[in-house]
Every structure is written in C-alpha cells, then in structure tokens.
Design a protein that fits this description.
Mean pLDDT: 81
Number of strands: 8
Number of helices: 20
Strand content: 5-15%
Distance between the termini: 26 Å
Low-confidence stretches: 168-185, 311-317
Oligomer: single chain
C-alpha cells in the first residue's frame, strides 16, 4: 500500500501528525476486551476525520463510501473502513477533544516557524445550522407542546405499567422492554424540552437585561436631575417624561442663576437658556402626549423591548427552532437573504493560519471581538508570542471594543473604500487629540496613510481563510446540532485548515 500514494501525499502527512500529537483523550473512552468485534483504533478514526475535512468531505456516509473506492481513504483505514454510524458516534463522543487537537496542530505550525502574530485580523461569517428555517416555532407553541408531551409521558407510563402488570401476571416476566411508541417519541420530546429550556434561558437573559437597563436609566436620570449636562442619546429604559421634565427644570435653574447678572456674556447665556427651555417644554409636551396615547400597559411595552432585542440578534421575539434550539435566524451578509445558523468568528495570522475561533449566537459581530481575541491571545501565549496589532471591520466599531484591554487595534468606522478615501483626501499626522472620544480617536488614526495601509491587510488575510473554510473544507452547514457540537466541528475544520497550510509549507518546492 505504500506504493499507492506518493511520499508527499497529504494522507501520509496526516498519519505523521497523528503520531506526533497527544491523542490520549480519544483513547480514554475506548472499549477494550469484552465480547464482540475489536473496536477501531481511535488514532485511525481521528486521522480519517481530519483528512476527510482537509479535502472537503464531512458526511460520515460519504467517508464510509470513500473508504471503499478511494485510494487515500483506503490507505488511512488500512482497508478496514468503519461504517458511517461508527464515524458519527466517534465525532459526537469526543467533541470536547477536538479543541485540543486544534491547539496541538497550531503548536506544530509554530515549531515549523509559522504563526506570525505581529498582525492578526478578526472577522465573522454565518454558517448554517443542521436545521431548517421552517422549524421555527412561537413560544406559545413550544409551551403547548411541552405540556402535551408531559401529559403523554404520564398517560403512556400508566398504560405501560398496566400492560407490564398484565404480562407479568400471565408469564411471570419482568416486562422491562419499553413499547415501541414510547421509544420513537423520545427524540421529539427531547427537542421540545431543549427548546423550552432555551426559551426560558432567553427570557431570563431579557429579565436581567431589563434590570440592567433600569439601573442604568436611574443613574442617567439622577445625573440629569442633579443638573449635569449629559451628552449622547437617551439611554434604554429611561422614562422620556421624567427626562424631559429634568431638562425643563435644568433650563429654568440656569435662567434663575443668571437673574440680575449683567454683561453681554450673561445676556447671551440667558437667550440660549430661554431657547433651550422652549425646546425642552415642547419635548415634554410631546412625551406626555405619547405616554397618554400608549395605553397598552407595561406587559406590552416589555414585549416591544424583547422584540427589539430579538431583531438585534436576528430572530423574531418569541420564535425558537425546535430542530436546533441553539441556532438563530441571521442575515447571510453581503450576499443577501438569511440563514438559520451560527456566527463563526475567526482570528487569522498574517501567514493565513487560524489562531483563535469563537462560535456565537449573536446575529452581529458587536460582542464577538473580545472572546475571539481572548482565544487568539491564549494560543499565542502558549507559543511564547504576543499579538502586536489586530485588524477588524466596522462590525466591531464600538466603544467597548475600542477601549477594552489588549493589543493595539485598528477597527474601521466604515467601509474599506471610505477609510482609504479619508486617508487620501484628509490625511492626519501625529497622535489623535487626547480629549476626543474613543471613536473619534480611531477615525483620526485611520486617516493616517500609514495606518490605512496597514488596515488594507485585513481583507486579504482573514477573508481568504474564511473562503478556504467554506469552499475547500466545505463548512457551509454544520453536520451536528447544538452550540457545543457545532463549536467542536468548527475546531475540527479549523485544524484541517491549519494542517493544509502546514503540509503545503513542508512540501518540496518545484
């Protein structure tokens, strides 16, 4: 069989890599002894899966077929190919170990002189879940089905007990086998139960967010009522009537403080205060009118707030997918349309290696920068390296991401062409003004032609690797369901991307 493939073939390289990494976690659950056929070697199954992902094959049924009629797959399994159920069970049972496989392959890349972390680019892409958009259901439907399933369990348990008692009376058997009907509905009930748990978790998160909004709103109103001039948009959860009343009182106090003060400056300030008072009184009248018109009560307003949060995360307010409750409805990006899936975040080095990944249920990238960077930092530190600069697009342009601890960063305030147009037409030099906000400082920095030139590397770095992940590896839809299982599959696919890069780097040139 050694003559079937050339010496530099990827299959031989995969076997060499498996020999070098620690696979003890895959052997822990291996059954030894007992009756029946001897189990497959976990190292062989791991090599088969990694090679399959590296060449774009992820279906366990396809891999089973290729072990029969494809030379490389026959070499990897030593002509004793496992069936698809064995591969599927192996992938499911060892999902927690694939993260360590990714880390070890990245370490091999580092030992080979790769993993250049001077500049790291971060971006996200939507990957479809193993579920259908038509499987989305309302919260009322989920609760109704959960109650119905609970009643079915009680009814069937009583019927089963009666049948077993009758059978025991006739035959004396223990009656330990469950009826077929009871067993076949178990999967549906499990999905409904998980959907209900996810719905309750989401509602608990909304309740916590409401409490946080209320706390922030009270703090915001206290500052306004104390006479502080607060700049910025109205905070979430702030009572608009109370806010406008505080503005009116503040302007009236300004006018009272200026009473009797002479001079041009005081006259100008009184004029500005009267103008601001008139605007505040008009805004107060409008807020009171809108409040009287909205007679729906707090429950309806809370539903509106939940709907707004749901739109931000890419789903309807009370909908949940009963096939994969962890998945979300998300915009597919520049291509248009929507996808029932997950938001996969990748941090990529300048030599096109995946340094860190994070799978999110968020429909946008706003809150994904820090966890993705944390993963990348952890892997970089394990290699004895430090990230010098991160690059990210406008989806991450928030005060939180701009000011969070970590390496230096360039996060664009807009589209690529806008960044380069600004740097060409309004070039800036030197450090940004210290008094400027975090966003204004970043806008100023990216007007520097040198910084704009460095930012150019972002799309050529991370978007190329995302294309490899989706087109070469074929990870456009996850094979398994649930956030944990999909995260494991993403680590396996990322390991395959890095393995391909390492193989090409070590392959003889010419």
């Amino acid at each position: 069989m050694a003559d079937w493939l050339p010496d530099d073939h990827l299959a031989w390289f995969v076997l060499e890599v498996i020999d070098q990494i620690d696979t003890a976690a895959f052997h822990e659950k291996r059954r030894l002894g007992r009756q029946g056929r001897q189990g497959y070697d976990p190292d062989m199954l791991l090599a088969l899966l990694i090679y399959a992902y590296a060449v774009g094959e992820r279906s366990s049924r396809r891999i089973e077929k290729l072990c029969v009629d494809h030379v490389a797959f026959r070499v990897l399994c030593a002509q004793d190919g496992p069936d698809h159920s064995t591969l599927a069970r192996f992938r499911a049972v060892h999902e927690s170990a694939f993260k360590d496989v990714f880390a070890q392959i990245l370490r091999l890349c580092g030992e080979a002189g790769m993993v250049k972390v001077g500049v790291v680019a971060i971006d996200g892409t939507k990957i479809a879940a193993n579920s259908s958009r038509s499987a989305n259901r309302s919260s009322e439907w989920v609760r109704e089905q959960a109650q119905r399933a609970a009643q079915e369990i009680v009814d069937e348990a009583e019927a089963t007990d009666a049948a077993e008692d009758a059978e025991s009376a006739v035959s004396g058997s223990g009656g330990e086998d469950l009826p077929t009907q009871f067993a076949t509905r178990r999967g549906r009930r499990a999905n409904i139960k998980k959907a209900l748990e996810e719905l309750e978790r989401r509602e608990a998160a909304d309740t916590e967010a409401d409490a946080c909004d209320q706390e922030n709103a009270e703090e915001f109103l206290a500052r306004i009522e104390a006479g502080e001039a607060v700049v910025g948009p109205l905070r979430a959860g702030v009572d608009p009537v109370r806010y406008q009343r505080a503005r009116v009182e503040r302007q009236r106090q300004r006018i009272a403080d200026l009473d009797g003060v002479s001079g041009k400056a005081a006259s100008r300030q009184r004029r500005d205060a009267r103008k601001a008072l008139k605007q505040a009184e008009q805004a107060l009248s409008q807020a009171e009118a809108e409040g009287q018109a909205d007679m729906r009560g707090p429950a309806a307003r809370a539903r509106d707030k939940r709907a707004a949060r749901a739109r931000q995360r890419g789903a309807t307010a009370d909908s949940i997918n009963v096939t994969d409750p962890d998945s979300r409805m998300m915009s597919a990006g520049s291509g248009g349309g929507s996808v029932q899936g997950y938001n996969a975040q990748v941090a990529v080095t300048d030599d096109h290696l995946i340094l860190g990944i994070h799978l999110s249920q968020d429909a946008n990238d706003t809150h994904c920068y820090r966890p993705t960077l944390a993963e990348a930092n952890a892997h970089a530190e394990s290699l004895g390296k430090n990230i010098a600069l991160t690059l990210a697009d406008a989806g991450y342009f928030t005060d939180e991401n701009l000011t969070s601890p970590g390496p230096d960063r360039l996060i664009a305030p807009g589209k690529n062409h806008q960044v380069h147009t600004q740097s060409r037409e309004r070039p800036a030099q030197g450090p940004p003004p210290k008094a400027a906000s975090a966003k204004d400082q970043m806008r100023y920095r990216l007007r520097d032609p040198a910084a704009a030139e460095r930012y150019k590397r972002r799309s050529a770095t991370v978007e190329t690797v995302i294309a490899h992940l989706k087109d070469q590896i074929g990870l456009r839809r996850f094979a398994r369901r649930g956030l944990t299982a999909a995260t494991a599959e993403l680590h396996l696919a990322a390991a395959a991307v890095n393995l391909n890069r390492l193989h090409h780097a070590k392959a003889p040139q010419g």
